[in-house]
User: Fold these one by one.
Assistant:
Number 1:
Amino acid sequence: MSILVYIEHTEGAIKKTSLEAVSYASALGEKEGKEVVAVALGKIEDSALAKAGSAGAKKVLHVADEKLNDGVIQAHASAVGQAFEQSGADTLVLAKSSLGDAVAARLSVKLKAGLASNVVALPEEDGGYKVRRSIYTGKAFTDTVITTDNKILAVKKNAVALKSDGADAAVETLEVALAEGDFAAKITSTDKATDEISLPEADIVVSGGRGLKGPENWNLIEDLAKAMGAATGCSKPVSDSGWRPHHEHVGQTGVKVAPSLYVAVGISGAIQHLAGVNASKYILVINKDPEAPFFKAADYGIVGDAFEILPKLTEALKAIK
Amino acid sequence: MKILVCITHVPDTTSKIQFTDDNTKFDKTGVQFIIGPYDDYALARAVELRDQSSGSLTVLNVGEAETEPTLRKALAIGADEAIRVNSFPSDSLFVASQIAHYAKEGGYDLILMGRESIDFNGGMVHGMVAEMLGMPSVSPVMKLDLEGDVASIAREIEGGKEYLEVKLPFVAGCQEPIAEWKIPNMRGIMSARSKPLNVVDPVSDEAATKTVGYELPPAKGSVKLIDKDNVEELVNLLQNDAKVL
């Protein structure tokens, strides 16, 4: 038996969240005595795929069909399903993402596999196959027992330590049969901000709220983010007012982030915003209102005017680089 | 055109989450239940699409009798009829099977729901329903326009958007800004009382997972405040204490 990991890639490299999924599978494989095989779809160099080995994959199956370059959900589900059956796997591990979720859901039906999403720990075997996952947007955890033979685990980002000491994996080409129906949803174009650090995957996130007073002041957030190597986010009122694009909205109904450090500037900390960030390892809050509820959820805080503090902080960060 | 919108009945986003019975049950004390916020976006867009095409709009929930006020609210917002599949929604595959069954029976052209429920956050039900019905699924959808039987869709992906064309029928998981939430008006609330709300039995009890317990995360320690004129100390803490730089 083996564990199959569906890995996503971008800009010619495996995504960090997918490497986390491989790391998770690798720890699971060690526990269950199973080999970890990864599958990647679409155009990417085999040398880049071999890097899945560093996180613990022994082998990577590469379906190089160009029709899979775009993340067409049904086609990806179909290809991964075939890889699952051909590799004799009984467990599929993947990273939660806009594509991963959709692929996992379809495969749960196709493979008759119980699915646990937002998984944050390895399964425990007492009383069945018990998996801990994050629920209520990070406000609680639940233990879910998967009762089927085949299993799918969608791993929450930043919940797993990245393993990086493995040797390169062997890459093999895999052929799959794709039907016309797999491409019923046609991707006509994509619009991606490639020059920025991706917000959902960033290790540090700097977010601004209404305290910034207007979009014209966003350079303060951007400069700080740059000095920290961070992605930028914003609160809901900011994206609602059109100061920043919707995909930067962090919170319960926006992007959920789980970085090592979340920096909130001029954000009061409404419960809906906290829900999107409470999985962060450390939270730094900068706000001129000492009563801002965000301070209660923070590890570090500065009470003061963002317009004064941000330039000083940016300079101090540049000084240590 | 026949539209089906599937809604969840979930705690208000400001609810304090607590558990009872030795951490085996969600504590409903003082909790207000609402239409899932993402489902509310799906419903709002569905009302607009129904009005454009003079079709029909059915809203469905898998839940016990306590969810009926939530379904009535969806009727007040503009759905024409409601279906309640009388069962506790214990597992996403179970819920998806119910939706797929009644969606097939009703012959719907468009099946919308939220990108995820805000209680279990799985985001899996729409994909499962689509697979069961052999339809395409798209999620999270932030824009959906129909021209004849072809939808043009904008889907949010990591750090951007993807644009798609999909022919009816299909399943979509929705999120903002697909439409503005609709607040029921008095006429809507009055008419919702007389609109049909059909209670049906679950078609199977097939499930692939079961939930055995809950736990709250450990409480956060108190914040360490740093003087606003001493950003160097903050940088030092981030670098050497938290080790995040």
Note: The radius of gyration of chain A is 21 Å.
Number 2:
Amino acid sequence: MARMTMIEAIRNAHDIAMDRDSRVVVFGEDVGYFGGVFRCTAGLQKKYGPHRCFDAPINESGIVGAGIGMAAYGLKPVVEIQFADYMYPAYDQIVSEAARLRNRSAGDFTCSMVIRMPTGGGIFGGQTHSQSPEALFTHVSGLKVVVPSNPRDAKGLLLAAIEDPDPVVFLEPKRLYNGPFDGHHDRPVVPWKNHELGDVSEDYYTVDLGKAKIRRAGEAVTVLAYGTMVYVAEAAAEEAGVDAEILDLRTLLPVDLDAIEASVKKTGRCVIVHEATKTSGFGAELSALVQESCFYHLEAPIVRVTGWDTPYPHAQEWTYFPGPDRIKRAFTQVLEG
Amino acid sequence: MTAPRPLALHVPEPGCRPGDTPDFSDFEIPRAGEVRRPDVTEAPEDMRDMAFSVVRVLNKAGEAVGPWAGTLDADALREGLRHMMLLRQFDERMLKAQRQGKTSFYVQNLGEEAVACAFRMALDDGDMNFPTYRQAGLLIAGGYPMTDMMNQIYSNAADPLKGRQLPVMYSSRAHGFFSVSGNLGTQFIQAVGWAMASAISHDTRIAAAWIGDGSTSENDFHAAMVFASTYQAPVILNIVNNQWAISTFQGMAKGKAVTFAARGHGFGIPAIRVDGNDYLAVHAVASWAVERARSGLGPTLIEHVTYRAGGHSTSDDPSAYRSKEEGSAWPLGDPIERLKLHLITIGEWSEDRHVQAQAQIVDEVRAAQREAESHGTLISGPHPSPRDMFDEVYAEMPPHLARQRQEAGY
């Protein structure tokens, strides 16, 4: 066991996967010699050579498209899109190609690849370095969509994603790379080395895709969250003194409906939190699922706390970011409304 | 100082529209045998001329001439002729089947048979093509069962793709034919990735990418060129310039470039133009590129100059946008007629044998069609079970999909 940041845990997962399986190759912009702008792949090229970990031209469609070809060949590519905001040129390759290859060829060709990309704001990244595009992927049959919230899960989920026979979009909340973040931007960040979820086994292990985790047990209200919002919800529950049950979804597609149902049926109330814009966001899907399966158990309307339906504004980042205060208001709404 | 004049946009137009007389006089065609054959090790910068000419082997008299001749013996040439005749007959039957309402859609290879058929013969088993919807010749020449192609076209109970894909979007890993996508150009970069993987794995297999003239304007064409050039991937990048992208003439994708092949130059990729209606020339150029790729010398770009003699698909009426006479005015002729003439010229074929071969091919295709139709057609069925629809979305069916399958009643 060692204390690791999420960056170190992700790097460790790459290292273990590459060591265990010579078919695993890692490529993307700046990931080779330099080790990635967030350093998630640092040292891999030195250890495994430039055939296993290498830089790619600045062409996201090319990175994913070449990855699909490699996966079709039988390698297991792990590609990095430097920021999720840059994935749009690769969207066609991800959605029309990677996601459907198995189905359209009736299993003749498959696409076991991982597409990693840092997501989310809270780092003054402006419109083009802050987006959370998960809903653009959860709408796509054939993809799996994963969002880790801590180093321990990040490693286990990434190793599971690499092992998965299907394409996995792996969204890394960059605000969590160095420590958990509770939404109070004026407080110093507690680094992972002071957090129990920074305790990461150095051995090989996986965290099952499709399984949520109860991060905080409670009876009064269920909070459905993932990524950074898990900590913001925790802070809100502590500060408001609300006995909230916080579910860290971890995998958004396929989502753990059993865990969601069990929790909402227990609490009778549901708050959904995400950083992405509200309209047609993943919260809409969660809300519909809860309504479909838990309607007769609900004691209050479902409330969504999300980013606003605007581009992520550089100067107004903390107005955009769904902080603890907005979640506290949502608690009031579902508990007293 | 004079006031600036208003600017005007240049929108390219083909030289010939319905009612006009086709004129290919601007199309510079070198004589057969005229274009040099560089050594495969020649530096790309020393063979730039190859992108502005057209490699041709068969002359008007049906003789194979020049430095690109001699890659195939008489048996191989007869086999090539048979592949092209099979493909044409296959097209004819499937076109008719679509007109008879047995399927929704079909895409002919008419006029372009030599391109895929000859290219396939230059590859080894195990090499991988990333084709478009107009390279059925790769399957025919590769010995893929014609009945399975028909089953796919009919989306019937025996369709290898379980009724999931549009007709002609075949897939066969075993026959080196990657699953065809309807999204244009995406396969071009995937082919480069496959070739990179082969190199990473120290394998000996190579990849061939295929794209039409129109789709070269897609971003993924350029992605493929950058990646192929950067990593010197063992891939052959084929542009099939058949002059038309549905109703859009090739000049629209080419812009002010002189040829599509010249696109290779900015990337340091050797580029060759070949007469796509000349089976021998296509085979010779393909073999040259295969040798380069397999020797670790990197990618080659080939522009196959040909003509789409049929419509874009059964949903297209070419007489609405191009002259009806254009096909017959096409100066590179018909690939089947040219190879047939060559075989007769060298004393390895005759009119009688041709008639006999044609009759056998008609029987063969008819028999395949009968067998395919015994498994159903799109309209009459039987079809794959709707239960299959939910399979292979993922390797293992996730719970939400299992619930939906149950809801659907399967």
Note: The first helix of chain B runs from residue 74 to 99.
Number 3:
Amino acid sequence: MSQSATLTAPSGRADSINDQLDYLNQFVSFSVDGQLLGVPVNSVQEVLNPQSITRTPKAKPEIAGLLNLRGQIVTAIDLRKRLKLPALKGDQQSMNVVVRFNDESYSLLVDEVGEVINVSGETLQPPPRNLDAHWKPITSGVYRLQHRLIVIINVTNLLDF
Amino acid sequence: MDEEILQEFLAESMENLSQLDNEIVILEKRPDDDDLIASIFRTIHTIKGTCGFIGLTGLGSVAHATENVLGRMRDHELRVTPTSISLILEGVDEIKELLHGLETTGQEPVHDNSQLIARLDELMQSADGDAGDVPAEISEAPVEATPVAELITSPAVEDSKPVAAPTNMPEEAADPSKKSISDLSIRVNVDVLDSLMNLVGELVLTRNQLVQMVRGDDESIFAAPILHLNRVTTDLQEGVMKTRMQPIGNAWGKLPRLVRDLAQQTGKLIELDMRGAETELDRTVLDAIKDPLTHMVRNSADHGLESTADRRAAGKPETGLVRLNAFHEGGHVIICVDDDGAGINAERVRQKAVENGILTDATAAGMSEKDLVNLVFAPGFSTAKEISSVSGRGVGMDVVKTQIERIGGTVDLTSRRGIGTEVRIKIPLTLAIISALVVESGGYSFAIPQLTIVELVRVAAEDRHKIETINRNEVYRLRDRLLPLIHLDRELELDDEHAGEERDVNIVVVQAGDEQFGLIVSEVFDTEEIVVKPVGHLLKDIAIYQGTTILGDGRVIMILDVAGIAAQFDGGAIATETECQRGDADHELAGNTTTMLVFDAGGESTMAVPLSLVSRLEEFPTETIERTGERMVVQYRDNLLPLLPIDPTSSTDANDQIQPVVVFSEGDRSMGLVVKEILDIREEPLVIRMPSSRPGVLGTAIINNKATDVIDAQYYVEMADPDWFQKKSQSADERVLVIDDSVFFRQLVTTTLETAGYQVRVCNSAVDAVEAIENGEHFDLIISDIEMPMMDGYEFAQWYEQRCDDTRAPLIALTSLSGADLESRAQQAGFARCLTKLNTQQFLSCVQELCHQRGRQGASA
């Protein structure tokens, strides 16, 4: 990148600046039912602790309800239901990954939020053939991390149901 | 001229002119600034253009002459000199004076500007000499100028009164108490108003929070300032709301003219009656409904009203009436456009819809008149016998509907033959602060807009018996009428936390359209001012919510749409609910409904058949039924229609004069099923709860709360036509996979296919089908439902496409869903065809065609 040439700082620091500018390779990671998933970092508005969620009777089962984010109303999507996974056991509470899509905010309810993962240098692998049919449309692809795989979620398709 | 347009013109021109003086002065210093000249030219040009449009000839001619000079300057044909600048400024001054005069008197002042114009023209023409280097452009200017020459001369000739008017000016200007329009109004970007509105919304919420904190604590030192804050916030909120509100009359301004022109073109006599013009609407909403409104009025006048001769013949007054009425109703604005014309011919709509392929014959037969009439909103539908120049070319009501729906509104059409048509638009106030009652039901809070609430009724626990039931539906005698009751928790499928308790009953009596009903809630709280926030994209299809809001304590709650709830229970939802309560988790209940024809089969049994399988209902006089050997037939349309009784042992009742017959058709064959009486048509989820071993009966379902046998139409068609079985041998033994989660349709499709000679493998879910295919089972054709649990039809098709490349069998989607994008979505997913449940004939021919194609492909490969 051109910035590194103009910077006189040690190369390590320049890299970290580049890292920060390198949004396209960064993903917010989170886990649902033991599976590591990620969404592009620039689609994420913020990450919240468990929130009180107002149920919306008669809505689709994947919609957990609505939450109040500083006066803004956010639709919460139960990612476990959306991915047809079993419900969270016991009194465990979901974390919120709030994403911005089509001028609306949606909160993806996940089990745990991980760190921002930089995948630069890796190529996105297409979803494997044997992936469950209902996962395929909502998966952009898979990155191979050193010890595990991260499945990248296609937010557009995820919110289209 | 319209007062409003004039005011707008004045405000805009004044604003522009105030800048102009400055610009012209700068121009004198920088005579070569092309951009500046262009900007000045545009300002004057705009004024000239508008003058021409609204007929201000005097003003227009001055502006035109000034513009000409500026035009030459812009084209470098005339040099910018102090003399020329002075003359232009003179022109601008005169324009200002004329505008002031116009503003104070409302009339264009009569000035003699012939001298000024002549000097300006002279200056312009002096350019001709200098402009030898650009001759091509000159030829344009005179051409443009010609029509204006008339403009210039005519007022000069008419205005015999010499330069008298300008003397009025100082007097008027001297009156300081009278502010001019340019002082009174400023233009503000709507975005600024939007963000103000949002901020006020936040402020209202915070105010609510504060008010709640000090409530009941009169000692608090914050009580007084919060009270003051409360008042100021309310005023501010109203003020900001007002900046965005405009009377709907603003969108009506052009309609009288439109109707007048229409009346002349069509030779009809039309009266336009407009009411509620003062009804205020949010500006953005107003903009959005302008076009649809115009279209609807045009439609009423053009298509709705009959010709004068037809009206006379029908005994109606010769002058047709088109009425526009706008009013507020429960947080919505309702706009009705109605006419006293001929109404919509439902039969013609039906024919047209079938012709255009919007409906199949069978579906059309089962539709109510109201549903049929509402088909005029279907894309590409037009009932006008010929395209008229007035009402467009086949684009029309569908566009109206989409535009209204885009802003979250609904359109409803009611038509009565010979009496007229009414189109009712309901537009929600997507951006508003309303007063609402907060209630609790099933452990959750909801807001009900105060405007829809008529009264609150509390029935004490010991008076519970006053709530009476009719076939399990609860009603309450409220004064002189019977109030239908709905348990909100049941309607919302929430748990009733107080089930079985003897407690007081809170009834919120609400008004939906012309009806009132009672909502039973468990608690009634306060009335609060709430900020209506639109429901998100994923929730907007749920009719029972009008919006969401955030309460003072930060909780999000849903705002109920009373009309939406009323619409839900109109469709027999109460009966459905009781079924839900039986604890049957069958998901089919939640989903699609099937229209069933319910009939009395004789022998005290009630039976039903999906209406989509019925081709006609007939009534034959008993004496026309003849017997040939064992069989009953009736002569029908030059043919013999075989008749079969449901129960061969029962004979037709000799006392009945008229024999009702349900006709089924299969290809070119028909048969009539003799029944005792047609009872009802019900739209309900169809769940076969008990399979039957009796021939001709698929099983027992609960319809209208009664156990009802659903008959197998196919069986009777076969019975009536013994040749049917011979067809079997014709078909090859192709293997067809049928995937459907509904027992009923699985059986139906299987019977149909097996009868036609196919080998059928059935799967009750796409997941099972995946397993079957993974296990190496081979199929020639796959027929799949779309709406299924776990894995739907689209997902299945996508999976299948990716898995099997070479050996793919064609896929048919068979669905009871409908929708414009359904077909394209299905095709995208990989379905070769998309059929609706269940037109047997169409279905079989499609199956045959695809199998045939595949057979050929297989042979060539």
Note: Chain A has one domain: 38-159.
Number 4:
Amino acid sequence: MSKMNDFLENKVMPVAGRVAGQRHLQALRDGIILTMPLIIVGSLFLILGFLPIPGYSEFMANTFGDQWLSKLMYPVGATFDIMALIAAFGIAYRLAEKYGVDALSAGAISVAAFLLATPYEVSFTPEGATEAIMVGGAIPSALMGSKGLFVAMLIAMLSTEIYRFIIQKNIIIRMPDGVPPAVSKSFVALIPGFIVIAVIWVLRLLVEQTDFQSLHNIVGEVLGKPLGVLGGSLIGSLVAVFLIQLLWSCGLHGASIVGGVMGPIWLSAMDANRLAFQGGQELPNIFTQQFFDIFIYIGGSGATLALVFAMVLRARSKQLKQLGRLAIGPGLFNINEPVTFGMPIVMNPLMIVPFVLTPLAMVITTYIAMSTGLVGKPAGIAVPWTMPPIIGGYLAAGGKISGAILQLVNFALAFGIYYPFFRIWDKQKLSEEGGFETTTTSSGKVVNM
Amino acid sequence: MNILLCCSAGMSTSLLVTKMQKCAIEQGKQFNIWAVSGDSVHNHLNKADVLLLGPQVRFLLPQLKKLGEESGIPVEVINTVHYGTCNGTEVLKFAEKLVYQ
């Protein structure tokens, strides 16, 4: 048992610390967070448009006219469809901040660079025609959303790296004293900004000579597809969950560390489902951000809500009884630090076993339930991770009772896996408290332990 | 005294904040205690006298310690047991020790 602790402490911890502290991954994670409030707001409108109440859409059509749904979807478009644009700004901003250079300018330059990498063309099928034609002079909203996310990430990092390199080499225009700082600041960004734009411009000109036509196509082929396969497969998801649990076992915020890498993949998958859901088509993806947040991490990373219920209902040691009472409130909102650090699960070889096994088992059950069509797939609605279970499952599945039922099944499964380990730990705590000889059960019967 | 707490999203630390505030009031202390997420901590540093990190983000310590040095405030990680049990009294004591030592 102590070998496991040594392994966690000496091998996993330092690597995790380095990954988590890695500048670009941090910027990626913190920058993409900027899109989250927008996407959640957009999701509210999405839910309103597809409320699963019989007669709802007829009622809406009679009250607000036939166009009610497409009008209700305006805010959905304005939030989901600019995901990449916002990310291009956010990532560059956060990265520049870490380098200690002007973050606002870096963000603005990154947005321009991202647009420069995007061909201003949309395909359009005129009435009566059978073939689509390309129309110029329009920013393609599809590439501003999740489809452009990977390009936005790469451009944001590339442009900010160039930007800070030039500034740190001190190749800037200096204004004489007496010029207002706001003015001289914009001149500082002039040369680096010019170089960033020139580099991306040359890059685009080169790419246009190849069969790929655009940077978006290259990134989609080279990065997007393999990453999508990794993030969209059962094996990939099990590995991600295993890593998250292993990191938490060392007391590190696994979801936020792994999220730096997996977040963009799951976010794109979520948006692909959203588009299909809106269009009334079959949902393409199972593994989205909500798959993990809502169906797996019931009660927080490790699905510990079931463990907390076990404490509240069955704990005999004072310590666990008290902890159960303390942890159940936050646990209903999927916050579980009181359990992970208070029980503790962190660095506790006994409790780490169910803590790692439970979510892995739940990934498999949830995958089976969704791939066989028993339960609705996540509908691309960004249900915040703090949403209590049952409501969360119902909403994430696009207003399907099956989503809520799956959460209950998963909860029961988690209870079953945690329970024996909980009993051992509880017994140990009880004997530490001095109650190991005889104890009274809730029915008043005296039993020997 | 102004005590700033920080974790990944500022959620679980805010639980601790409530407990610490209660303790401070019981002890008759006029403290300002609040929690923020890791990515917005730099916007709050100038208002704080001490910064305490949740143990789950202790990988941020080197980076935030540097920021703390610039603003001249101590930065430390909260004891895991105190954190897990939401022990407001102990964490409050810890914060005071860091500021007054």
Note: Strands of chain A lie at 121-124, 133-136, 438-440, 446-448.
